[in-house]
Amino acid sequence: MSFSTIAWEGGITSKGKVKILDQTMLPNSVCYKYIHTPLEMSEAIQALKIRGAPLIGVATAYGIALASQKAKSKKEIESAMELLANTRKTAYNVFSTLNRMKKIVGTDYNLSLLILEEAHKIKQEDELLCQKIGDAPIYLAKEKIKMVYAAETRPLLQGARLTAWELTQAGIPVTLICDSVKGVILRDKKVDFCIVGADRIAKNGDTANKIGTYTLAVLAKRHNIPFYVAAPYTTFDPTIESGDQIPIELRSADEVREIRNFEIAPKNIEVFNPAFDITPNEYITAFITEKGIIYPPFYD
Amino acid sequence: MSFSTIAWEGGITSKGKVKILDQTMLPNSVCYKYIHTPLEMSEAIQALKIRGAPLIGVATAYGIALASQKAKSKKEIESAMELLANTRKTAYNVFSTLNRMKKIVGTDYNLSLLILEEAHKIKQEDELLCQKIGDAPIYLAKEKIKMVYAAETRPLLQGARLTAWELTQAGIPVTLICDSVKGVILRDKKVDFCIVGADRIAKNGDTANKIGTYTLAVLAKRHNIPFYVAAPYTTFDPTIESGDQIPIELRSADEVREIRNFEIAPKNIEVFNPAFDITPNEYITAFITEKGIIYPPFYD
After folding, report:
1. ipTM greater than 0.95, yes or no?
2. Which residue of A has its CA nearest to B217?
3. Given CB atoms, is A183 within the 8 Å cutoff of chain B?
4. Structural domains in chain B, sorted by start
5. Is the Cβ–Cβ distance between B155 and B256 less than 8 Å?
6. Which of B219, B262, B270 sits opposite A176 (nearest CB)?
7. Which residues of A touch B153 (CB under 8 A)?
């Protein structure tokens, strides 16, 4: 990536702030915003200004760092952690971050300094991880890639606004499709493989990811096309056995009923708007991680 | 339906015009427009102001009626037929209409009168057919229906703007979903059956319908959910053996890149935007037609 999505600015021990790239404005505008409190961070994550499980993990870390600078007691840091834990429950990276921060808060050293250092470390690790993961399947292989078909990913169009845009920036040929075109693409376009991300991976390999992933997985199996999940190790949740234990965030009906405040559906119509779905392990060919490719069985 | 989508107004032998409900404005506005020439009719069909294969068949008939009122020769009527034949090539109802009109044009009687009478007849038949077909699965059974899940149907959102709205008008409970939610709905929501429409049905039962139908069919098969195609007999094309002979209309990239002139994707990004897809016969449980339910095999 040639742009930065999140950065700490200002003091090490006080008055720090976090600069974020507002992803809801891409690609029309490249807007940065400043975040000063854990509450502002939680709101930015909830509004998808910050999105993608690994980045949410980094944002959570910086949110705790902001709290620790102003906190007069451990209790205040802990309530910031509680707030951020409840912001987007599907993403496991949030909990990896919280587990690391909890260990630090358990000590009695200069907490705000240690927490900020840990947050920087989480960010650096994330950048390295994401680069390693991205490099393998897409960016390094770009000379060999004839075409990436990117689904637009309704309702919030991350596929159109972000995936398609990032691939274009990287010089990789991309064709945008509506989500309902997936079946025809897999049947007719000689697709070599599918790649999706992950928000949380259970011990048995069941994977929570952006809504539509399960549909794509069923289509890929039907057409015998390999189906890869690309995700850093921090996405693997060692505390749950299977996907049915992953909470699925239901988001607001207006995300579907409106685009940029323009009504595109009947007023007040009932909407079912899950942000994620679970893809069972049997649909997944392998996981692409920074530590290499992990093939089934996934049970250990 | 409690509203009229198309109606002939004005003179029987001259100065006739066609009043249409502009479906692109629904449900925000109920707008009617007047159509005076075959070219205007062709443009209205192309812009999806008039849509749905049976209605396109009726619109084609009235377009020919408009031509015949002003035509000084059979040739002029024939060029109007040629124009309308090329407007939306996937819909078979256009060709059913054209075949009926060709027989009339072959005679030497008062053409404009005969053509208008035939157009009225096609419209009345269509209304009766659509009512019979709709009655069976949805409207008559409405007391038994607990919930219809309607996919929004990107890019032009006919599912949100039209299907969901019409069901609501008829007092049938409906929940709107993004197209990518289909997989989760069929897996988790105890769905009893799927119903789709059709634009053209080949002799072997392969069916062209709105893009996304094939994806739904694969998901339905995966979850052992019956998959019905509801369509009038005029949608069956006796001249082709299988789905690969049905032309698929590719529509403009801007339909995907913009919503109401607001850009929702990177400028100039390549887009693959097929309006329809083909569902092979083996995915179809049965056809619901005005003549009853047709079960496989479909080969005669």
Report:
1. no
2. A183
3. yes
4. 6-131 (1.20.120.420), 142-294 (3.40.50.10470)
5. yes
6. B270
7. 180
